[in-house]
Here is the input.
Amino acid sequence: MKKFENYCLNLKVLAKAKNEDLNNEFIVGGIIYKFFVQFELGWKVLKELIKYEGKSIANSGSPRAIIKAAYSIYSFIDEDTWLSMLKARTNMSHIYDGNAARNLVNLILDNYIPEFIKLKDEIQAYYGDILDNL
Here is the structure.
């Protein structure tokens, strides 16, 4: 699945964020941007997998609906963390000061990246070689 490949490629870059200079505003902005892309890829991968499972909710364009559906289907989805990511993504356009941006980066590093990695690993374990054919 091309979306899953893109998800994994972006995650590979985002996962390196903890090694960057977090005092650099451009680095902080880049981490936030990569998080935004990762979240978008994540919920869209979930949407494709839900569609594969034959669930009509996959026709929804709502990330919230897809996250809630994924939580009801897959035991490895942490609904609270994904809804927190959705809220952070929505609020990103309202982050104007450096402290708020750094707080978001801390959330990304401590909570969201591990959740993205868990999703990647669990999807690979759950679907295996089928992913190549989706």
